[in-house]
Design a protein that fits this description.
By secondary structure, this protein is mainly alpha-helical. Helix content is 53%, strand content 11%. Helix 3 packs antiparallel against helix 4 (82-94). The longest helix has 15 residues, at 9-23.
């Protein structure tokens, strides 16, 4: 569930500029804050979805065969970061 919000021209211009920087990093495009783009911005509707709730699922290897499960656990332990070790602990608890 969520709400739709209409984005106004100034925010649209910033959003389009950020998207162009990502998609065309070499540059060369006109700024969307330029007057020439003003008409195009006014006639282009952009909405954003603002979620009211967020949910997710995690897989911790519950359905893996033992060999595959242990291989993943071994690699996580070898990498050894705090998050890796916490993940191994959760995987073993939920197995």
């Amino acid at each position: 569930m969520g709400l739709l919000e209409v984005i106004e021209n100034q925010e649209k211009a910033l959003m389009f500029e950020a998207m162009m920087k990502k998609l065309q990093p070499s540059g060369g495009c006109k700024s969307f804050s330029d007057e020439a783009c003003n008409k195009a911005l006014k006639t282009t509707a952009v909405v954003k979805i603002v979620p009211s709730t967020i949910s997710c699922k995690f897989k911790f290897g519950q359905h893996l065969d033992t060999e595959r499960f242990e291989m993943i656990v071994k690699h996580l332990q070898e990498r050894g970061s705090e998050v890796d070790l916490a993940t191994v602990e959760m995987m073993r608890e939920l197995r």
